[in-house]
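Issue 218. Parser rejects a valid record. Input:
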Amino acid sequence: GQLLGIKVTVVMPTIAPLAKVDKCRKFGARVIIEGAHIGESKAYAETLVESEGLTYINGYDDPEILAGAGTMAIEMIEDVPCIDAVVVPVGGAGLIAGISCAIKTLKPDVKVYGVEPQFCASFTAALKAGKPVPTETTPTLADGLAVPVVGSHAFEVARHYVDETVLCSEKEISLAVLRLIENEKMVVEGGGASGLAALLPGGALDRPELKGANIVVPLCGGNIDTTTLGRVIDRGLAADCRLSNFTATVSDRPGGIAKLTSLLAEQGASIKDIYHERAWLHTNVDQVQVKCVVELQGKDHACRLRAALKAAGYPVIWGSSV
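Output the parser choked on:
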């Protein structure tokens, strides 16, 4: 709008990342925060058509935007002529509608998979109902995909061209964000990383037929707040068993906690947080519970640490499955 000299008003929900809000304002847009999710924001935006005489453009269901999304598929084929499959994050279904239509038109044999967060599976619900239907939405790391009702135009296109749609968990999304940061040095928001989340070990698309295939995954979105990114990284580390928590019972006499921390040091565990609790332990008066968060090297390391604690005689309640 700034380049064309057109005044732009953008309506966003309260869950919109501050990074996204700030960028829109820097481009000269008037940003209105309204609604708990994109569906409520859309409803408010439509009222501005009459009250202010504005033209409403749906960011995921406008036909021209769907066509624009299709150009991404053309670039995919140009860059990867031997493409076997495309895995696309799904929110309002506009991106996957354009990509799937172009892909299937140019290369009908290429498989097109959609990926939705478990906390807002609106496209899956629409496929079951045969039409767009309201879907319960729970706050998700993939906030950019939290669209309670998919676009009607997008649905009519995507339903004919998408081969399969799968779901991904919050744990898988956080792990995908972490993998992209560590391996690709890329900061991608939860919604943009959802396609990769489904392909990681244990994901819905972790299948034998896709092993070794040429798969294209659009990483569509880098609007994530720094504070949210920190929480996502921690969740990713926890999912990777590189951040673990446990509660151990130790002697409340001098040196009791020191013996525990010495064992942790011997096992190569770095203490991130430690807290001891006296009041809510109702067994022995000279014992205390110590809650620890430790940084580890992975699942094998976590298993070794747990075995070492058990061998040393510490009653341990482990906070994650190892």
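Fixed in the parser; the record now loads. The chain is about 40% helix and 15% strand.
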